Structures are given as structure tokens and as C-alpha cells.
UniProtKB/TrEMBL annotation:
Organism: Gordonia phthalatica
UniProt family annotation: Belongs to the nitronate monooxygenase family. NMO class I subfamily.
Signal peptide location: none
Superkingdom assignment: Bacteria
Family annotation (SUPFAM superfamilies): Inosine monophosphate dehydrogenase (IMPDH)
UniProt KW keywords: Dioxygenase, Flavoprotein, FMN, Monooxygenase, Oxidoreductase
Name the UniProt record assigns to this protein: 2-nitropropane dioxygenase
GO MF annotation: an example: nitronate monooxygenase activity
UniProt xrefs under InterPro entries: Aldolase_TIM (IPR013785), NMO (IPR004136)
Length: 326
């Protein structure tokens, strides 16, 4: 696991986004020095998934056989009838990281550990985190307040601190982090990696349709609403998208749909027509290549690190002054 972190330019995961993350984004992220990830449910069927996995695996494997880090996201909720079929393909192509979501990581542990991969469990609260650790997850992805799509309610800093009280494995944190300053802050707070999702919505390599990308560029934090009224699980939606589909954002919470994460069908149609984003949406001002986005993150991250170094130097200086006066 530490070897994966050491090979990154930045401690960032381009978070797996439903109907947005695909092979082009994952490959561009890997080549730019971060981890790209995609949900297997973005593929219509197993044949499509086979093709995606083969493409990513080949493009992120160097001539010497070294594989750049990448990840797939598997929904382990009981309504996902395709999980077993997808897991067979995961075992064949061996992504270094497998992220589980909306259910226990337990169903995938033996398979992923069998080929030497690591399992990271998406969790939205402390009870979920403790359960994932108890069954043997290698890492936790703490989905915090401000995340796009299915979101959490805890501050990323409070969540990180609380999880570090009982878990010393790989810790990913995400929620409203869309620039290098936020990445540096999360790492300083105790995370190993940072989920950045919304920042890549309008990437040129994203699968989001043109109108979605333009809406993201034009929107800011005031254009978001968090509601369980679409999928049965709290998610962060773009108000203009809801209004464009005849949904009143202010009455959305009156709806109580059943949770359903089956690949295909109504679940896909809902997310295809209704667009999500996180609280970092205001940081997006243009449709840009992944490489340029990562460059911007890297510049901001380095500047933030320098500020931390400066603060540490000041602290050391004051400590020496205090010792001299003693």
C-alpha cells in the first residue's frame, strides 16, 4: 500500500463518479500522477466492463511491466445483482485498488486479497467505518459533508480525527475538496489520500455530457441541494438540473423512494437526467484536460505545503526564543 502512495505525484484519487468516470479519465489521471477510479456500473454489461478493464490495464502498464495505480468501484449493496459477474472480471484484470460502496466490503475481500490487491470501503459514518475495519478492509474512504453524489454529513477533519482513533490503515477522505489547499489540509489532518470528484466533472476526459459540464462551470455552492428524494440515500444535486426536469428542489424531501443500486434501469435514468455535484463546484471555471487540472492542484498543494513549513519554522523560532529567555 505504501508503495502505491510513493509512486504518486499528488495524494489524490479522481473519485469514481456514476456515469462520469470512464477509461479516458482513469488513464489520464494515472498518467498525470494521481489515482483514477470508475464505478463498474458505468458499464452497461459485462462485455463493456471487460473492454474497459482491458483498456485501462494495458494503457497504465509500462513497458517494464510496472502498473500505475488505478481503482475500480464496486457497489456491494444487495440490490446489485451484477456484483458476482463484475468481480470475476476484477479478478482477471487485477486493479491494485478496489473501492466498495453502499454495502459491506466483505463480499470482495477474498477475491481482491487473493491477487494481492487492496480493498477500500466507502463509509459515511463511524459505525460503518468500524464494521468495515472489523471484516478486514485495508482502507477506508470517509465520505464527508460537501461530497457530490451520495454524500456524508460529518466534517472531513472531524471524521478523519475520529477514525484515526481506532484505525491506522489507509485513510482516504473526501467532501468539498476541490483544490490543492484542501488536499494539503486533509493530509495534514491525518489522511493518506484525498478524494477529488467534482473538480473532474468538467474535465475534457469526463463522460459527462456537454450541458452537464457547462452547468458545473456556471454553478457555485448556492446551486446545490442535499436530499434523499431521488435515490433514497442523501445526495448532493444541482438545483438547475432538478428544475430542468420538472422537479421542485424545495419539495424534493417529500419523496421517499426505495434504495436501489441495480445496474441499469431506472437508477441509471435518474442519474443520467439529474446531475450531481459537490461543494467544490465553485472552483471550476472552465472545461479543462485532466493533466491541466492536476497541474493546478499540484501548484496549490506545493504552496500550501510551503505555508505549513513556514508556520513550523516560526514555531521553532519562538521555541528557541523562549529557551533563550529561560
Amino acid at each position: 500500500m505504501r508503495e502505491i502512495l510513493n509512486r504518486l505525484r499528488l495524494p489524490v484519487v479522481a473519485a469514481p463518479m456514476f456515469l462520469v468516470s470512464g477509461p479516458e479519465l482513469v488513464i489520464a489521471a494515472g498518467r498525470a500522477g494521481i489515482i483514477g477510479a470508475f464505478p463498474t456500473q458505468n458499464c452497461r454489461n459485462a462485455d463493456d466492463l471487460d473492454h474497459w478493464l482491458a483498456t485501462i490495464s494495458a494503457d497504465l502498464t509500462d513497458a517494464d511491466g510496472t502498473t500505475l495505480p488505478w481503482a475500480v468501484n464496486l457497489v456491494t449493496h444487495r440490490t446489485n445483482a451484477r456484483l458476482a459477474e463484475d468481480l470475476v472480471l476484477v479478478e482477471r484484470y487485477r486493479p491494485p485498488l478496489v473501492v466498495t460502496a453502499l454495502g459491506s466490503p466483505e463480499p470482495v475481500l477474498d477475491t481482491v486479497h487473493g491477487y494481492g490487491g487492496a480493498v477500500i470501503a466507502d463509509v459515511a459514518d463511524l459505525p460503518m467505518a468500524r464494521k468495515a475495519v472489523a471484516v478486514g478492509a485495508d482502507g477506508l474512504a470517509c465520505i464527508s459533508a460537501g461530497a457530490g453524489g451520495h454524500t456524508g454529513s460529518l466534517s472531513p477533519f472531524a471524521f478523519t480525527a475520529a477514525v484515526r482513533e481506532f484505525f491506522d490503515g489507509l485513510l482516504v477522505v473526501g467532501g468539498g475538496i476541490a483544490d490543492g489547499n484542501g488536499v494539503a489540509g486533509a493530509i495534514a489532518a491525518g489522511a493518506d489520500l484525498v478524494y477529488v470528484g467534482t473538480r473532474f466533472l468538467a474535465a475534457q476526459e469526463s463522460l459527462a455530457v456537454a450541458d452537464y459540464k457547462e452547468m458545473v462551470v456556471d454553478s457555485d455552492i448556492d446551486d446545490l441541494i442535499v436530499s434523499a428524494g431521488i435515490t433514497g440515500t442523501p445526495a448532493s444535486w444541482l438545483r438547475p438540473s432538478l428544475a430542468a426536469n420538472g422537479i421542485d428542489p424545495d419539495t424534493l424531501d417529500d419523496q421517499q423512494p426505495d434504495r436501489n443500486y441495480q445496474a441499469g434501469g431506472d437508477a441509471v435514468r435518474r442519474w443520467k437526467d439529474l446531475w450531481a455535484a459537490g461543494q467544490g463546484v465553485g472552483a471550476i471555471t472552465a472545461i479543462s484536460p485532466v493533466a491541466d487540472i492536476v497541474d493546478d492542484l499540484a501548484i496549490q498543494y506545493r504552496l500550501a505545503a510551503r505555508r505549513l513549513d513556514h508556520a513550523r519554522s516560526l514555531d521553532d523560532h519562538h521555541s528557541l526564543e523562549g529557551a533563550a529567555h529561560a
